[in-house]
Amino acid sequence: MTDTPRQRLDKRRVRRTFDRAAASYDQAAVLQREVCTRLLERLTWIRLSPGRVLDAGAGTGQGVRDLRRRYRGARVVALDLSPAMLRAAARSAGWWRRPALVCGDVEDLPFADAGFDLVFSSLAVQWCNDLERALAEFRRVLAPGGLLMFTTLGPDTLVELRRAWAAVDGRPHVSDFVDMHDIGDALVRSGFADPVMDTERMTLTYGDVRGLMGDLKAIGATNAAQGRGRGLTGPARLRAVEAAYEGFRDGAGRLPATYEVIYGHAWAPQAPAPKRPQRVIPIQRAP
Fold first, then answer.
1. Which residues have CB under 8 Å from 183's CB, separation 6+?
2. In Å, how far are 123, 169, 222 from 13, measured between CA atoms?
3. Burial letters 163-173, b for 16+ CB under 10 A, else e
4. Which of 121, 128, 166, 245 has the lowest CB atom count within 10 Å?
């Protein structure tokens, strides 16, 4: 991994913001929907007949719906940190053959070893404090010969917004993201075989900065860094950010919001995964 420490995320805040965004997510998640669709399309070129599938970071259930159609005989489990997102996924799935819904963290998966043949995860692991721990958990729950398919975001994501805020103050306003090559190295260290990584840049455009910020809030992608400012953003500072962002306006009069999308897949070797260390809880003797 890189030597520069990443900002740690407040996981309780992450859960709360996604809970609040569950009702507005589908309307605003244009990029997230497209990235998930492209990741699902990549499964077409991989010969796999999984009996047990985990969608890790299922959100409102787009991946779950397609995975159930694609692998009709498989048992599909939807996991998400946000209970409200899982409720939205349940509603979208309908009453027939509703998927199993599990509220949990990808950094500490509540599943037995080797329980899945496919782990699918679209734009979820960037919300981890310890990416390598999350990858090790994916490796642990995959059966020998199982497949991990995932997307995440790279360091150039929202670079315009990051630079605009940097011109105003030194506090974190945009999450840190891990470089593609570091993720590939982490996959190998986590016990995966034959990792394949690639990246593409996708750009959304807006008439003004407030439109971008409104979309980020609507999908729950707000600032959750532990070192973030705790107060509301005042009008003067917001105007300063808007002025700094104006330097990125393109020839068509639009403001770009760049996303560096990283795609990855890797296989679980035939050898069993390393066992997760068991936590030892001390037993106090009665007086």
1. 131, 152, 197, 262, 264
2. 18, 22, 9
3. ebbeebeeebb
4. 166
Residue 282 above 50 pLDDT?
Answer: no
pLDDT at site 97: 66
C-beta of residue 57 within 8 angstroms of C-beta of residue 79:
yes
pLDDT in tens, 206-223: 999 999 999 999 999 887
- Distances in Å between the alpha carbon of 97 and those of 5, 37, 111, 159, 272? 44, 22, 21, 42, 31
For residues 132 and 164, the answer to whether their CB atoms sit within 8 Å is no
* Cα separation, 251 vs 268, whole angstroms: 47
How many angstroms from the chain centroid is the CA of residue 78? Answer: 14
Over 70: is that where the pLDDT of 104 sits? yes
- Listed residue (42, 6, 1) closest to 263, CA to CA: 42
Most confident of 35-44, 172-181, 268-277: 35-44
Q: Say which residue the tokens 């699918």 belong to.
A: 120
Count the neighbouring beta carbons within 10 Å of the beta carbon of residue 198. Answer: 10
| Residue linked to tokens 């394949």 | 196
Q: How many CB atoms lie within 10 A of CB 199?
A: 18
Query: What pLDDT is recorded for position 249?
Result: 96
Give the chain's domains with CATH numbers: 11-267 (3.40.50.150)
Residues whose CB is less than 8 angstroms from the CB of residue 100 and which lie 6 or more positions away in sequence, other chains included = 75, 76, 77, 78
Of 49, 116, 113, 43, nearest to 77 by C-alpha is: 116
What tokens were used for 234?
């005042």
